[in-house]
Amino acid sequence: MFDIGFWELGLIGLVSLLVIGPEKLPKVARIAGFWVGKTRHMVTSVKEEIKEELKEEELRQLLKEQHSTNAKMRSRLYTMGATF
Fold this sequence. Notes:
Blueprint: H1 6-20, H2 25-80
């Protein structure tokens, strides 16, 4: 997702240590981790729902094509004099 290396993480940690302080840093890190995990889970579920919707739409389109093909074949057979 993001291309963050070791030095960038170290710099973020150092700045957060200076801004937040050593007492509150573990609590803030836990809360941030919780929200990052929750956001990842939400993004994953949205991706899965989109995939399912696309599959459903593709299947609807295939079914529609099959119905039109069947209708064409029935009309051709009907004009040839066949009965069902």
